[in-house]
Every structure is written in structure tokens, then in C-alpha cells.
Amino acid sequence: MTNLFLSPLLIEKVVRAALEEDIGRAGDITSQACIPAGTQARCVLAPRKPGTISGLSVAEAAFRIMDPSVKFEYLAQDGDAIKVVRTPVARISGDARAILTAERTALNFICHMSGIATMTATLVALTNHTKAKVICTRKTMPNLRAFEKYAIRCGGGMNHRFGLDDAVLIKDNHIAVAGGIKQALRAAKASVGHLVKIEIEVDGLDQLREVIEEGADVVLFDNMTPAQMAEGVKMIAGRMKTEASGGISVESAKAVAESGVDMLSSGALTHSAPILDLGLDIEIG
User: Fold this and answer.
1) What's 19's DSSP letter?
2) For burial by CB atoms within 10 Å, which of 122, 135, 178, 183 has the most?
3) At the topology level of CATH, where does 8-118+274-282 sit?
């Protein structure tokens, strides 16, 4: 997938911090005790289950931060669907101590990111007969948001806003404090620039009618039934983009997408996706 991008500067910063956490003050005392200095090793990185790969460049960074001379050969690309277990996705060779020290940090990143990509690909496959796009939320682990949102794209999904400064999203608590839907929308329109999109959450068709009267760029159907969403889509008649949110899962995604919404947002993609188990296998001989 050639349009994927994850900043090398961010990778370096986050992976280095993760390695520092793991190595501590004395370094990898197990590898230092068991492996003679200068020992070379060859190994492959391979999944234990079928899934979609994400985070190869992050894994590479872990090994190469420990030793820049370590060689990391890509045998797959992020976004690839691996159907046969133990199909190597990378080959690593170089100083054995450096490789073994970085192993767990590299695996933690690529297993987590590939798990997100795999779950995203599952939802995309369930909904690709509709126009609905699968998107993520801000329910991400602190300091890993860019990594997790990158993994969403590897799985064929799309990103929602990256942070509070990307776009206006007026939720139920904003509406309550502002004094109502119209008050919140009018205040937002008066405050932000012309390039900033305004989205607002509704939990019923009565609220939707108010939004239609006032106008917004996107409306979010929060925990509404597919039938209610389908009626809402008809009411909007193309005047706003529509997003479905709340309880989007493998079980519900197909019915929600068939309601006619433009987007399905799922926090579960980042906060509940199981890892895709990958391992580092030493090649002997």
C-alpha cells in the first residue's frame, strides 16, 4: 500500500523510549551473560496466525537503534494480508545481543499494530458492499495514536480526527453545557475558520431535525438503530455526511453500513483489537 506514511522521526522517538524502558540501567543482562560478544544471528519475523501486517518499519527501528549495522530485509509490506501461518514477513541478521535485546520491543509494536490492522480489515470486508468507510476514533493508547491510526489505514480503514485541534466534534456534553444544539452550532461556526469541519452528535431524530435546520458538515448518529439511521439518512438527503458510532462490532457492522451512512467509527478497533501473534525465529546453520 504505497500511500501509507508513518513519520520516521516519530518512530525513532517512540521506539527509543520503549527500548529505554525495557533495557533499564544495566542493559539486557541475560543476553550479556549467555551470548558471547560479537556472536552473529539470523532470524525471521513470522505470524502465528493469518492476519494483516502493520508496523514493519517500527520493528526495524527497534533492531537498528540497538545496532545500526543490523540488516532488516522486508519480505512483506505493511497492509499485506498473510494467509499462511509462519510465512516470514522480514529477515533480520547481525549482532545476536542487539537482536535479542530489541526482540520484545519490536514484537510488542508489530503485534499490536497488526492486530488493529487485522480487525480493521475484517470490518472493511463486512461492509465493502456498501459506500460506508470504516474509521477510527480518539480511543487510543497515550503516545501511540499515530501508530494505531496508521495501523487502521494498513487494514483498509480511514482516520477520524487525530486530536482536539483537527476538527470540531460537538458531543452531548458540549450540547448540554452550551444550552442546546442550535446554540452550540452557532457558537462553533462563529469561532472556527472556513477550513475547519464541524460535526455534531445526535441520539435521535428530533435532535437531527434541529441540526438540519441549523446546518453542519457531518452528523454523528450515536447508538441509534440501523432503522433510525436509515430514516436519518433520508431526512438529510445528502446535505451532510453521516457517521454511525456506538457499539460498532463484527456482529453489527454489516447492518449499520447498509443503513446508508457514509462512515462507521469504532473505538474497539484501537482499544480492544487482539494482537496478531508474531514471533522471532532463529535460523540455525
Assistant:
1) H
2) 135
3) Aldehyde Oxidoreductase; domain 3 (3.90.1170)
- Residue 104 falls in the annotated catalytic set: yes
Q: How many CB atoms lie within 10 A of CB 41?
A: 19
Q: Would you say the C-alpha torsion 63, 64, 69, 74 has a positive or negative sign?
A: positive
For domain 125-271, the question of CATH label 3.40.50.1820 is answered with: no
pTM: 0.96
Q: Which of 16, 42, 104, 145 is catalytic?
A: 104
Residue ranges of the chain assigned to CATH 3.20.20.70? 125-271
What is the full DSSP assignment across 236-277?
HTTSSEEEEESS--TTTHHHHHTTT-SEEE-THHHHTPPP--
Residues 70-92: tens digit of each pLDDT:
999 999 999 999 999 999 999 99
- The C-alpha cell that represents 97 in the structure block: 545481543
Amino acid, single-letter form, for residue 116: I
Q: What is the mean pLDDT of the chain?
A: 97
C-alpha neighbours within 13 Å on the C-beta side of residue 159: 18
Per annotation, catalytic residue among 73, 171, 172, 283: 171
